Every structure is written in structure tokens, then in C-alpha cells.
Amino acid sequence: MLNPRLTSLLEAWLVGPIYGANIILICICIHRLSTHKWKFSTVTRALLCTIFLLAVTTTAHAGLALSDLIVGFTRDDSLRYFLDAGRPIVVAALIVYAINVHVGDIFMAWRAYVMCNHNKILAICYASLLLAFAGASIAALISFTSARTLAESKAHAWTVTAWAMSVVIQTSGSVIIGWRIMSTPVAAPRTFDPWLVLWVFVDSGALYTCITILALSLSFPVSTASYVLTFSLGQISAFVPLTITLRECWKTDAELARQRVNATSTFLINERIHTRRSSISLPRLRYSSEPQVSVDITTTTRFQDASEEDIKEPVRTVPPLSHWVL
Fold first, then answer.
1. Residue 259 CB contacts under 8 Å (≥ 6 apart), including other chains
2. pLDDT tens for each residue of 76-131
3. Widest CA span in the chain
4. What average pLDDT is seen over the chain?
5. Which class for 307: exposed (0-12), middle (13-18), buried (19 or more C-beta within 10 A)?
6. Alpha-carbon dihedral angle through residues 226, 240, 193, 179, given to the nearest 10 degrees
7. Do residues 238 and 103 lie in contact, with contact meaning Cβ atoms separated by under 8 Å?
8. Residue partners of 238: CB distance under 8 A and separation at least 6
9. How far apart are CA 99 and CA 93, in angstroms?
10. Helix intervals (H) in the chain
11. pLDDT tens digits along 13-69
């Protein structure tokens, strides 16, 4: 068993650098999303609100970790203080961690839903899992606050249940998103590119999933190690959505500059679906007696906001996006 004082120091050492990275990512995300505000207003507003929420929660989480060290090491009975796993500061940090995890899981579920072309069955499955996860998280926090330890059977059972539900959401989302990226012709190179594996790892959010599984596996034999990972997960759960958002902004800029749609960009896929639903009336085309020509809207209206001076050469004809996205 690790010394409680050493455990608290490890928690702060892990939280501090990750929080610093999160703040840098938050500033970059706000700057990059502001450049897309006029192109993807609905998605951008939602993401900006999410990032502001993560800025508040990550700052609160880092502040709680620091205050826990200050309070603990300035007391005469510091060992007894750190032995109490259910102290109020830890409970508050776990509440912030739960908020960050739910934000990350909702973000992952939304991306998988968009990547699957707004599949309603998938939306129902994820909505059910998210509601069940929220209920299990509340029960875990209540039971942990009452027991003041993770070793108590009821608190441990609810905590493992909540973690397992989060792992299911994250793993399924990672697999779906990773598979869609790898199977999209426009995104897959003809030769093997080692960087593609890294980008798929970032896009799918597999980093948080792997660390959550590690914390879940350590919660049985080494509870103190699980506490350390839980504190770091409070920051990592925000780190992953921020890196994914930056990656999405980069993909969107790159594909718009090359004058074609990237089927793996969540911004562009979401816009394509809404554009088709608002611009094409299928019943009218089906029952019209006049001959009709079906046109892929995304390949003809992607640059309707760009000026003629920005386009130096005529747009090449490309296959419809419907052939790339199942």
C-alpha cells in the first residue's frame, strides 16, 4: 500500500501538468472555433459552450487538488487527514470528475452518431447508456460519500458499474469512429502511413478509454493506485475532447483548402446531412413527372460562401460523398 502522503503528492504531480496542457488547448480551441463560427454556427456554438464548461471544471479540479495538499500538509495530523478518503475536498473533486466524464461521453456519442449519418437506433442506444451512466454515477457518489471509502462493497459496486458503463460508451465510440475513418477512401492513403494510426488514436478518443480501463483494473488489487488515476482522469477526461476538437478543426481547414469534402470531418458530415435534409424533398422528386437529375449537394455548394477571387481554378468533378459514407 502506498503512503497516503505520497499518494496525494502523486495526484498533484499528475494533475498539474495535464491541467496546464488543458488550458493551452482550451485557448487554441476557442481561437480555432471562432474562425469557423460563420461556417458551422450551430456546432460551433455548442462546442464553444462545452469548452467554456471544461475550462471551469478543469480549473476547479486543479484548484481542489492543490487545496487538498495545502490543507493536508499544514495540519498536525496530516497522516490521519490523508487516510480519510471521503474528505469533502475529495468528494468535490469526484463530482467535478463525473461532470467531465459525462461531457466527454456525450461528446463521443455525438461524434459516433454523426459519423453514422445520424443513425436513430444508435442514438437511442447511446441515450439509454448515458442516462443509465448518469444514474449509476449519482448512486456511486452517494454511496462513496456515506462509506467514505472505496473498499465498502456498495460503494465499490456502484463505482465499478459507473466506470464500466463509461468504458462501454467510450470503447464503442472509439471502435465506430476508428472504423469509419480507416474505411473511408478519401481518408485512407494508398500506402501505409504510421501517422494515420496516431490520428485514429486521437480521433477515436482511445487515450481516455485505455486509462479508464487501467483504473478499473487497478481498483480491485491496488485501491490507492486507483485513487491516483481517478484524480488524473478528472483532467484527462477534458484533455481528450479538446484534442479531438483541434483535430476536427485541422481536418476541416485542410479539406476546405483542397476544395473537397473530407468524409471523416464531423463538421462537414454534420453540415452535409443538414444540407440534404433542408434542400432536397425526396417525395417531390419521386412523384414528379418531369425528368430530374440527382446531385450531391456537398460537391456543388461547399464553397458557396467563398469569393471568386479565392478560387483560382475551376472545381474538379469528384465522386459524390454518398459513395464514400455508408
1. 302, 303, 311, 315, 316
2. 888 888 888 788 888 898 899 899 989 989 988 988 888 888 889 999 999 999 99
3. 88
4. 75
5. exposed
6. 90
7. yes
8. 22, 54, 57, 58, 100, 103, 104
9. 10
10. 4-35, 41-73, 78-83, 88-115, 120-147, 153-182, 194-203, 206-218, 223-257, 266-279, 282-287, 297-301
11. 888 898 999 999 999 988 888 876 656 667 788 888 999 999 999 999 999 989 988
Out of 50-59, 226-235, 259-268, 314-323, least confident range = 314-323
Q: How far apart are CA 164 and CA 171, in angstroms?
A: 10
Q: Per-residue pLDDT tens for 176-232?
A: 887 877 776 655 455 666 676 777 677 667 777 777 777 667 655 555 566 677 778
| Euclidean distance between CA atoms 237 and 105, whole angstroms | 9
Using CA atoms, how far apart are residues 6 and 3, in angstroms rounded to an integer? 5
- Domain range 4-257, CATH class: mainly alpha
CB count, 10 Å around CB of 154?
Answer: 14
Nine-digit cell string for 105? 461521453
3 state DSSP class of 195: helix
Q: Is 182 exposed, middle or buried (0-12, 13-18, 19+ CB in 10 A)?
A: middle
Q: Give the domain ranges of the chain.
A: 4-257
